[in-house]
Amino acid sequence: MSNDPLRIDTEVVELVLRRFLHDEITKAGFSRGVIGLSGGIDSALSCFLAAAALGPENILALRMPYKDSSQDSLDHAQLVVDELGVTCETINITSIVSPLFSKSPGMDANRRGNIMARTRMTILYDRSAAWQGLVIGSSNKSELLLGYGTLFGDLASAVNPLGDLYKTQVRQLATAIGVPPVIIEKEPSADLIPGQTDEGDLGFSYADVDQILYLLVDRRFSPEEVEAAGYEAEFIQNVLKMVNSSHFKRRPPVIAKVSERTIGHDFRYLRDSGL
Fold first, then answer.
1. 0.70 cut: is pTM over it?
2. 122-157: burial string, b at 16+ Cβ within 10 Å, e else
3. What is the DSSP letter of 1?
4. What whole-number distance in Å separates Cα of residue 86 and Cα of residue 66?
5. In a 10 Å sphere around its CB, with 0-12 CB exposed, 13-18 middle and 19+ buried, how is residue 176 labelled?
6. What is the pLDDT at residue 14?
7. Domains, the chain, ranges and CATH?
8. Is residue 260 scored above 90 in pLDDT?
9. Which residues lie closer than 8 Å to 77 by C-beta, 6 or more apart?
10. Bridge partners of residue 63, in order along the sequence
11. Nearest to residue 35, comparing CAs of 14, 15, 13, 64?
12. Gap between the Cα atoms of 79 and 182, Å rounded
């Protein structure tokens, strides 16, 4: 038996996530799903799970390249489409975002990336209405905790099967259910600018940060306890800062309370009320 605390029982997790997708989508009155298929491991895994949960005929996968997008991303997304037999549509976003870029000649890569991510989500939700299916997300727990994503862009979805799996656990499950190895083994990248990688942006590897996040979040260790477990204090503080500063991305907009029952304060469904 593995001593790695991030090791998961892939058979159990796959069953849970397939049932989660089926139950959440059908109880909302839908039977179809829409996924942005980037060619990366996260969206590929979401697509595999959704096809198993709802049937491949009920999944619409959208490839949405920009002119600088890697051809590998398109090719790897196509591998998933071919493997699963889901419906696929390709929409090039260059002509949509370029006019916006031209309005701000000094726009940096972060702003451009945000515009591309939100444009893709606009298309996904439009196709969601036309296809009559819910948007299925693919942001993993590592990304969500670190705030590594665009609010109302790639972080948006109606249901997210991967949000409680760290990136290292995503790799485990993807391997177990047959995501093509070329997708699993390549460096994670949002593919927003040529040569960009997730770990290059973050400044550390998912393998390292997942261990720290697990101790801080799942085990509720103090920073001192994490340091005692063998991690550098500066690294721990950097991770904590990223988690704390991105909390607004993980919750709905805060509503000011002025009435007797306020959405998000007193008026909640029982399943969301907590203790």
1. yes
2. ebbbebbeebebbbbbbbbbbbbbbbbbbeebbbbb
3. -
4. 22
5. middle
6. 98
7. 10-203 (3.40.50.620)
8. no
9. 37, 38, 39, 43, 44, 61, 63, 88
10. 90
11. 64
12. 10
CA 268, CA 68: separation in Å to the nearest integer?
44
Q: Is the pLDDT of residue 217 over 70?
A: yes
Longest CA pairwise span in the chain (Å): 57
187 compared with 166, residue with greater pLDDT: 166
Q: Looking up tokens 């999944």, which residue turns up?
A: 59
What confidence score (pLDDT) does residue 200 get?
75
Lowest-confidence segment of 83-92, 155-164, 180-189, 190-199 by average pLDDT: 190-199
Structure tokens at 94: 């260059």
Mean pLDDT computed over 41-66: 97
CB 30 within 8 A of CB 59: no
User: Is residue 109 a contact partner of residue 191, using CB atoms and an 8 Å limit?
Assistant: no
